[in-house]
């Protein structure tokens, strides 16, 4: 699909690697480029793991103070005469984001909100957030986040656009099995950042131990890096699970592991819109997730493409994992429905919504 109203767009990202929001930013650059827009990407950090399309201006490579980088960024925007800015970063630093909003962004701007948890999306000053954003266009990645922040900040121009899936690229990546651990056969999978406060992985370890999965020969794979890796390894030993839990460090392409997993799990305390659920379902791998805010209930239809479980209910989560092993009819039903259940998140459908948002912003 080509846009009928091609624009010059500056996409601002924290980085192009090591995170779900960053992956979405890279994918957004491809969508906008393929719509025919001229895309420039400004990356705050020098981390580039994900493929992208457009012209990259890597601020992270510049050896200068933060203030100097802000001036360089301002001059870059002025020199290129962009039609609009799309800001993919979180906005948690009050002074920095006040300066950016009021003194650097002088053209129409769309702000993306990737998280439901306020402290991970905005500064701690609600009055300032309302002042800065109530009249701006904000794109949330879940309806739950849209409703929350509309009410909290009295937002006048806020809408939900879900994170997209590139089905073709996803399946190509999933076929690249050369780095797959060949000793792994039967396993369930968590993949993402190993952060206990966010992902609630001790809950997962306890419910895995209480389930029948060990008896049935299924390992638990935790794939990713994070500041709680050592703590979680120690907790695994305390539970006497070291023979059954496999820690795999972050890999650029986790999709072969996703495709070959029995199912993937998500036990987070909070999310924005978890791409791991979309990716799993797109690869025909059923999912079990807690009903945290926000995202899972907007992706999972209980017992249709996965299982949606009450947050922090260990018995219910344990029973859910058991049911995917013992009830083959339920498991196969979720597996068969998985791909079609996420067709509405295809990159072509989401691209149309982004093109309309840009058109609405500039009209």
Question: TL;DR of this structure?
Answer:
With 363 residues, this protein is an alpha/beta fold. The chain has helices at 20-34, 66-80, 94-104, 126-133, 143-153, 167-174, 196-199, 201-210, 229-238, 255-260, 275-282, 296-299, 314-326, 328-341, 347-362; strands at 8-13, 38-43, 55-58, 84-87, 109-113, 137-140, 157-160, 187-191, 219-223, 245-248, 264-266, 287-290, 306-309. The radius of gyration is 21 Å and the shape is globular.
Write the layout of secondary structure elements.
Elements: E1 8-13, H1 20-34, E2 38-43, E3 55-58, H2 66-80, E4 84-87, H3 94-104, E5 109-113, H4 126-133, E6 137-140, H5 143-153, E7 157-160, H6 167-174, E8 187-191, H7 196-199, H8 201-210, E9 219-223, H9 229-238, E10 245-248, H10 255-260, E11 264-266, H11 275-282, E12 287-290, H12 296-299, E13 306-309, H13 314-326, H14 328-341, H15 347-362
Question: Can you walk through the features of this model?
Answer:
42% of the residues lie in helices and 16% in strands. The protein is of the alpha/beta class. A 7-stranded parallel β-sheet has the order 3-2-1-4-5-6-7. A 3-stranded parallel β-sheet has the order 8-9-10. The longest helix has 16 residues, at 347-362.
- Provide the structure class: alpha/beta
- Proportion of helical residues: 40-55%
- Bulk shape: globular
| Strands, count | 13
Chain-averaged pLDDT: 95
Low-confidence stretches: none
Q: SSE order in H/E notation?
A: EHEEHEHEHEHEHEHHEHEHEHEHEHHH
Strand adjacency order, main sheet: 3-2-1-4-5-6-7
In what range is the share of β-strand residues?
Answer: 15-25%
Query: Cα-atom Rg, whole angstroms?
Result: 21 Å
State the distance separating the first and last CA atoms: 21 Å
Q: Main β-sheet, in a few words? A: 7 strands, parallel
**Helix segment tally:** 15
């Amino acid at each position: 699909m080509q846009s009928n109203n091609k624009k010059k767009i500056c996409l601002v990202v924290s980085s192009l690697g090591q995170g779900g929001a960053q992956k979405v930013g890279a994918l957004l650059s491809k969508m906008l480029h393929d719509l025919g827009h001229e895309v420039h990407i400004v990356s705050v950090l020098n981390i580039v793991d994900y493929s992208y399309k457009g012209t990259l201006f890597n601020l992270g490579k510049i050896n200068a103070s933060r203030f100097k980088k802000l001036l360089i960024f301002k001059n870059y925007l002025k020199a290129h005469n962009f039609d609009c800015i799309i800001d993919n970063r979180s906005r948690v630093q009050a002074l920095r984001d006040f300066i950016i909003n009021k003194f650097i962004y002088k053209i129409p701007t769309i702000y993306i909100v990737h998280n439901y948890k306020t402290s991970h999306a905005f500064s701690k000053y609600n009055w300032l957030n309302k002042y800065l954003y109530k009249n701006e266009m904000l794109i949330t990645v879940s309806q739950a986040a849209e409703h929350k922040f509309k009410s909290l900040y009295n937002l006048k121009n806020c809408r939900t656009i879900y994170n997209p899936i590139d089905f073709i690229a996803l399946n190509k990546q999933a076929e690249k099995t050369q780095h797959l651990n060949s000793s792994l056969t039967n396993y369930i999978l968590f993949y993402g950042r190993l952060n206990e406060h966010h992902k609630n992985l001790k809950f997962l370890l306890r419910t895995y131990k209480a389930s029948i999965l060990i008896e049935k020969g299924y390992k638990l794979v935790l794939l990713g890096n994070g500041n709680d890796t050592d703590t979680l390894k120690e907790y695994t030993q305390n539970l006497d699970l070291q023979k059954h839990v496999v820690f795999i460090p972050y890999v650029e392409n986790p999709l072969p592991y996703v495709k070959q997993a029995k199912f993937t799990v998500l036990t987070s305390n909070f999310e924005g819109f978890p791409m791991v659920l979309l990716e799993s379902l797109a690869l025909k791998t059923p999912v079990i997730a807690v009903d945290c805010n926000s995202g899972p209930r907007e992706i999972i239809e209980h017992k249709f493409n996965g299982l949606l479980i009450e947050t922090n209910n260990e018995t219910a989560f344990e029973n859910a994992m058991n049911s995917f092993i013992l009830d083959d009819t339920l498991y196969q039903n979720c597996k068969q429905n998985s791909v079609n259940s996420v067709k509405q998140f295809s990159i072509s459908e989401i691209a149309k919504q982004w093109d309309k948002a840009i058109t609405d912003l500039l009209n």
